Every structure is written in C-alpha cells, then in structure tokens.
Amino acid sequence: MKIALRHGAGGEETSKLIHDVFASHFQNEILNKMEDAAVLPEITGSPVFTSDSFVVEPLFFPGGDIGKLSVCGTVNDLACMGAKPLFLTASFILETGLEAEALEKIVVSMAETALEAGVKIVAGDTKVVEGKGGVYINTAGIGVRPAACSISATNLKQGDAIILTGTLGDHHATILTQRLQMETSLQSDCAPLNHMVQAVLNAGIDIHTIRDITRGGLATVAAELAEASGCRINLEEEKLPVSEAVKGLSGILGLDPLTMGNEGKMLLAVPAAEAENALAVLRTTKYGKESVIAGEATEGTGVNLLTALGSYRKVLPLRGEGLPRIC
Amino acid sequence: MREKELATFLQNYKGRPLKLMEVCGTHTSALYRAGLRQLLPKTVSLVSGPGCPVCVTPTSYIDKLVEYAFTSGCQVMTFGDMLAVPGSRLSLAEARDQGGAADFFYSPEEMLEKAQAQPDTTFVLAAVGFETTAPVWATVIKEAAANNINNIKFLTALKTMPGALSFLCSKGRIDGFLCPGHVAVITGSKPFKLLAEEFGETMVIGGFTQPQLLRAMVRLVLESGRGQAGLWNEYPSVVKPEGNTAAQAITSEIFEPGDAVWRGIGSLKDSGLYIKDKYKSFDAGSRGLNEDRIPAGCLCSRIVSGDALPAQCPHFGKRCTPEHPVGACMVSSEGTCCITFREGGTI
C-alpha cells in the first residue's frame, strides 16, 4: 500500500494509519491515552527542551535510517546539555507514494531506538503532502538535569582536555557513498549517546562542555565552541581518529574529515586532571570505545591544528552547503 | 621519521632566495592544509598562479551570462562558485536577485535530464574549466547531440594550461613551478617537460596529499635552489608521460584550440577550447568575449601572475571578502585571495 492524501485528511484512513503503524509500535501509558496532548508526570530538576527535524536522503542507509536518526538526534541534543532524556514527540510529514511498509520500518526503528535510549514517545502528528514518497520527521524532546549542572558551550575553560568519543565523518561518508551508489564497508555511526554521557557524569567527572559532532563536522563544532567560550582549541592531527574507509573516501573525493558530520560522536571538554579518568569511563561504554584525547583548550581564539609535520594551521568551519540533507 | 626529516629540510633551507609558484588552486589550499606553506623559511616565497578557472574568467563572459539570465525563456546554469563572480555591472547572483534566471548544478551531466524534462526552456550552461573538466563537457555535448536535446546551449570558457605557463615562463620571474597534478593526469607530463626545456625552468608535478606535496616541494626547492632546469614527476602513480588519451580524444573530438582572454592577463594564443563547427548549434556565442574590466585598485591581475600577494591588494580583507568579493580571486574556494583570507593570517 502506498500513502495517499487521504491518509492525512483526518478521517478514517488517518485513524487507521495512526492506530496500525504509530500507536502499535510507540506503546506507552501516556501515548496510549490518545489525548490531544500528553500529560507528563512532575519533573524534579531543570527541564531541558529541544527540537530537531530530519530530512535525510536516502531514508535507509547502512547503520540506520531516518527513524533511528530522528530519535538519536534529539536524544543526543539533550545529552549534550547533561540532561537525561525523558519524553519525545514525533511529527511526520509524509509524501504521497511512500510505501506503508517503509513507513512501518521507520517507525519500528524509532521505537527500538527510543527503547535503547530509555525515552518515551508520548505525542505526535501526521500530515500528507503531494510528493515522491519522501518522509520528513520532527522530534521534540524533554529531559531533565540537576539544577546545579553547568554544562554549556560557554563553559569551556583554558586547560580543558578535548576528548573525542570516536572516529570522524562516518555518517557523512556513508550518506555520500549511498548517493553516489558506491559499494563500501562504511556504516553510519548514528546512535543514542545519552547512556555514555550519563556514565561519565555518574563517575563524578566535572564535564564543562559537550557537543555532538554533527553537520559541519569537528571543525565547525570546535569553531563554535571556541567562539562561545572565548578560548582557543588546539587539536593534534595525529591524534584525530579517522577510519581507513573514511580516509580513503575523503582522499578520493577531496573531502576533509574535519568538516564531515557524524551522528554518534561527541566532543567533551573536561579539566585536564580528570581527562584520563573520563577516557577510562568512556571506553567502557557501548559507543565510546574509541575515545581519545585529541587536544586542549588554551588562551586565544579560533581552532588550530598541529599538523603531522609539526606546523600549525587554522581549522576553518565548513563554508557553503557541504553535503545537503545529511540528517 | 622520514616525513619529519623532509619537513626539516624545507624549514632549514639555506640556499639562494627562491620565488616559487603553485599553479593550481587546489594546490594553494592543500599546501595550507598540509601545513607546508607555514614551514617554508623566509627566503622561499610561494606565489599562486592562474590555476583557478573561476578566477581567470573575463568580465565579458559573466556579462554574457547575465544577459542570458534576463532573456525570456532562458535559464543560466553554472557551478556554484561562478554565481558570485562580479561582471562589469552585475554578478549572476545579483542578476538572480533582480529576477534573472540563474542557478547552479552539482554536475553538468544532470543538466541533460533537466533539459529533456523542460523542453520549453533553453538552458545556457556556463562551461568553465581546464583540461580536467573539458572531457566532461565534451561528453555532455556529445550526449546532447546524440539524443537531440537542442534546448541546451553551452557558453564555454575552457582554458588550457600550457599557454598560461608559457606566458609566465616567458616573463622569467619565477624560479620554479609546482605544476598542476590533476591537469597533468589528463595532458600527461610531456607538455610540461617541453616547457621546462624550452624556457630552462624547474618544474615539478605534484599530488595533493601531505606526503605527495611534501615530496614535490622538497624536490622543487632542491632543484630550483641548484638552478637545475627540467621536469620532475613526483606524482608518477597517476601522471604518465602520454596522459589520459581517451580524455584527450573526446576533448579534441568536440573542441578546437583558439585564443582566450585570461582575466587580468589578457589574450593568450591557443589557450582556450571552443566548440567545433560540427557541434556549433550548441554554442551560445563563446568566441570573442574579450573585454575584461578589472575594478579600480584590484590587484587580481598581478596576483594570478605571481607578481603580487593577496595582502598587497588595497581591497584585500577590507572591501573585498569572500562574502563581498571585488575581484574574482576572492570568489572561488580555489581562488588565491579567498584561500589566503580564510586560511592565512597569523597563528
């Protein structure tokens, strides 16, 4: 069955779609009430709230799909603030011509990822527009963090160690090879990272800053953090983790892994004295096994890279479009 | 470590002062990224050459595209970088803001499908590039002809490197050239060897990765420092003496050489490629676009000839930035001024 305009008209077909596809997979006591809005339990601590939209093309790719991405994206944004993600909403804009089977696969993937992350999808919406079988998803999420938590982009301090939780550019490279119809071993690193962050927080480590390395890559994320905090970030080229597959692809296509995005990697800044401890904890987690200390924050501005040859070069944020519709 | 030793050699070069030129825009950027430019001692100056296709396109070419953008039924399509290049009155981006039809494509091939899907629109494609891009354009033109796609026209500004290098060699102000690796893949190393012999120049063909660039730069400094003329191919894994003969064949099937105006340099004999008579119905009037109006004070012409550095231009970083370019060298991500503005400066 293909999705048609009637599935978004609010009538019987809409109800059936919601019931058969969304409600049957996103089961939980709040959503099951099927009210106009979700009534949430009281939250102790500072509520943290975010929203993100997903337009990735293709919808399915090695290592994930738009559904998994839409849950990970919002969960990870909450985790970047040191928050424990609690509840998500999921809104869909479907294009006519979409196979209902594909939609169900996406929804199942969202449900599985939400289960892994420990969040509940408690509200949602569906609209249908004319098109060519595409899907666009918006998720919004609420999490909670202790009132005293000060994790922030502005909280990066001179002397902090810069930790990367794994290899750079995997998601970007995967999407690119899919578009170019290249057969490779590349897999998107798309993953919910909240448990990884929680493990470091539970170890009592004073994390100053967290950012997930998404669109624009490490270069862009580091440049934003340097500007927000009034520090300089020095990275070491020889310590930057890049898989052989990404290295090979970026070599052929003239891309820089520094400006290629991930969907399952983070940059953490912690006081230098706590860096080794943080690293040890990260390496015990499912998605942090390849964590490394890749640089430090110092006095100054901007981002510099110590090249393998021993000279410094400026690291510049991505300019222009890069690769559109990556997430 | 071997690489570090080579880097140390460059850093500690104590021979005669050298003025070297990297011809290709991709090299300009790669040299910064590899950290190599930063390693060179003060006695070695590295200037950039005319190896960015956007930077050497004269204003009359842009003006012609702008004219098409305002012609009813026409849609101008170009590589993204080209949109912001200032014409004598407007850039294509400005033309678009004023209601002109101008947009960009990711690859020229995609335009064939687009033209077939919209038969009532005449697509005017800005076909710019060097020997590396010419075979792609040749293939697209051949395909268009084979499939009778007649609502696609090409305004070409294709250029070839030997003519420009010959001009630069004849001025005799450069001690050694880092020759464009990608172009050499297509043309082969032979044309560069002939130039090196004719002018007694030091020329090195180099690749683009850090180890490749390092090897090429060490060779260039070493040989030009000793005043040794000749060509060294330091990109031998992909650059062969005869080049890519299949690419050369399709280029010469569709195009023929002719004089071309290089922005800021002037007309150079046989340094352009033009659509042959057999395919002339696809030509949107590419010949004779010779007028080249450089804005007052803009040093682009001296910069692409290696006679001036971007920072010496009075507009650099002031009136002229990548967001608001005055000269063409500030537009393209391969333009010397743009690269210097973004990647250069003190660290």
Give an overview in words:
The complex is a heterodimer of chains A (327) and B (347). With 327 residues, chain A is of the alpha+beta class. Chain A contains 8 helices and 13 strands. In chain A, strands 8-10-7-11-9-12-13 form a 7-stranded mixed sheet. In chain A, strands 1-6-4-5 form a 4-stranded mixed sheet, with helices on one face. In chain A, strand 4 (84-95), helix 3 (100-117) and strand 5 form a beta-alpha-beta unit. In chain A, helix 2 packs parallel to helix 3 (100-117) and helix 2 packs parallel to helix 5 (194-202). Chain A starts with 11 loop residues before the first helix and ends in a 13-residue tail after the last strand. Chain B contains 13 helices and 11 strands. In chain B, the strands form 2 sheets. A 6-stranded mixed sheet of chain B has the order 4-3-5-6-11-10, with helices on both faces. A 5-stranded parallel sheet of chain B has the order 2-1-7-8-9. The two termini of chain B are 25 Å apart. The A-B interface holds A 237, 251, 254, 256, 304-305, 307-314, 316, 319-321 and B 3-4, 7, 26, 32-36, 38-39, 80, 208-210, 214, 322, 333, 342-343, 345, 347.
Short description:
Chain A has 327 residues and is an alpha+beta fold. Chain A has 8 helices and 13 strands.
Helix percent of chain B reads: 25-40%
Count of helical stretches of chain B: 13
Span of the ends, CA to CA of chain B? 25 Å
Largest sheet of chain A: 7 strands, mixed
Rg of chain A (C-alpha, Å): 20 Å
In terms of topology, how is this protein built?
The complex is a heterodimer of chains A (327) and B (347).
Chain A: H1 12-25, E1 46-54, E2 60-61, E3 64-65, H2 66-79, E4 84-95, H3 100-117, E5 120-129, E6 135-145, E7 160-164, H4 170-179, H5 194-202, E8 209-212, H6 217-229, E9 232-236, H7 244-253, E10 266-271, H8 275-282, E11 292-298, E12 303-306, E13 312-314
Parallel strand pairs in A: 4-5, 9-12
Antiparallel strand pairs in A: 1-6, 2-3, 4-6, 7-10, 7-11, 8-10, 9-11, 12-13
Helix pairs in contact in A: 2-3, 2-5
Chain B: H1 2-11, E1 18-24, H2 25-33, E2 44-51, H3 59-69, E3 74-78, H4 92-97, E4 102-104, H5 110-117, E5 122-129, H6 134-146, E6 152-159, H7 161-171, E7 176-179, H8 181-187, H9 190-199, E8 202-205, H10 210-225, E9 230-233, H11 245-254, E10 255-262, E11 266-275, H12 300-304, H13 336-343
Parallel strand pairs in B: 1-2, 1-7, 3-4, 3-5, 5-6, 7-8, 8-9
Antiparallel strand pairs in B: 6-11, 10-11
Helix pairs in contact in B: 1-10, 6-11, 7-9
